[in-house]
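Tokens as discussed.
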């Protein structure tokens, strides 16, 4: 991993400064996380922050967002934890879908509403699923 000299926030988004004159603004990937490209490789910002300030991720752990907001990459909101801890947190934050399954009819209706221009976030609330579920239907990753 490239040596990151400094992290700071700009307009609420984490920015990595890795070499003189280069400020890396994060992009948003399909899973809803910020990422940056460093020396040709894509890195998730939340992982970079903990690696830079806390150290490498312990075996069997992943990065957890304390408030459930994938876009909040402030060090105070991040910690290492197990997958199980992450699932418990997602239930606590209300970001876990609870294992609900959509019916074929619901998916057809979701596609129709997307075609009419309804927002994914509104549909997620309407069908009581995570916004990523709607996104995956939209791009054909599921169903």
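Sequence:
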């Amino acid at each position: 991993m490239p040596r990151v000299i400094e992290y700071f926030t700009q307009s609420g988004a984490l920015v990595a400064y890795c070499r003189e004159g280069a400020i890396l603004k994060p992009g948003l990937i399909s899973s809803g996380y910020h990422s940056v490209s460093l020396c040709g490789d894509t890195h998730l910002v939340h992982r970079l922050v903990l690696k830079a300030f806390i150290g490498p991720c312990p075996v069997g752990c992943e990065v957890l967002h304390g408030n459930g907001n994938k876009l909040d990459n402030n060090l105070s909101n991040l910690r290492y934890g197990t997958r199980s801890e992450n699932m418990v947190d997602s239930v606590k934050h209300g970001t876990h879908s609870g294992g609900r399954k959509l019916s074929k009819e619901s998916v057809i209706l979701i596609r129709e509403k997307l075609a009419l221009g309804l927002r994914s976030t509104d549909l997620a609330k309407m069908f009581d699923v995570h916004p990523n579920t709607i996104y995956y239907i939209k791009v054909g990753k599921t169903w």
